[in-house]
Amino acid sequence: MPNTAYIYVPTLASEQLDTGLSHGRWGWRASALERGGALQVAQNLRTGDYLVFGHRGPNSRVKPGGWSDATLQRVVVAQLTTTLFTEETPLWDDDTYPERIGLRVIADLGELSGLVLGSQAMESLRLSANKRGVPVVTPGAEVMGHLVVGISAEPANSVDWTAAADWAASADRAEPGDGTLTQVLHGVLGRRNALMLRNQLLGESTSTCAFCGRTLPNGLLSVIHITPLHNLSAETQAGGGNFTVACNLGCEQLFRRGYVIVDAEGIITATPRSRETPDIHQAVGAVSGRLVAGFNARNAPFFAHHRDINAN
Question: b vs e for 141-158, b when ≥16 Cβ sit within 10 Å of the residue's Cβ?
């Protein structure tokens, strides 16, 4: 069974956190791991273990349990892909942090209450904060089950309660390497992530399709991946930017199925397959030549990847 490691990232290290997640790496100074057996804890981390990053919490110099109902401004759940290794290659701007692990992000949950994350997890993060951000490990994945069930109970979150309950029930009986836990975790947290993203990109009741420019009720719009996730590395996925808004009146399917692409200048362009039938050609013609809304340096690489897949 995988274990769970908790790592606290202080308020002033927001940029370092973003850099580490986007590159699929986290690291510590050697001096930080020299204290209190932290090096042994880090060396004992194994591929498949879960990582919970907590960022921007309250003052950690409080009594044990003092964080049980606190709020963290950002919580990221990841999974270990590479055990502890030493590497001097520059990655972060402020320091080398040569003692490193590899990771892949499962979900960036944003702001999260300790009541959802659970008292054991919050205490582990508080201890990590007091130990210069070294990992604090709890055995098994029980706390991950608590997290999933807690998220399932959040208002306006359409999570499959059965899946969440199955996760919690199976946490103690899974065999090492069992992929079921990870699959449920991906599903439940991924749906919460998608809900958060939809709330960020769409207005209160109506929004605009990035392709046709029509303003529509949110129920007729989808927040979609520009490039399918199976075509991207975990590091690239974690970097963000792979999203756009497309309407359900045709634009979503025209883009998903490669009838239109977005060129290097952000212009919507027809592909040869758009001539499959006269009606498809007419539908594509209605959006061709428009500047896709929200085109920027962050999402341009994803549109380029989609273009490479569908240009011919």
Answer: bbbbbbbbbbbbeeeeee
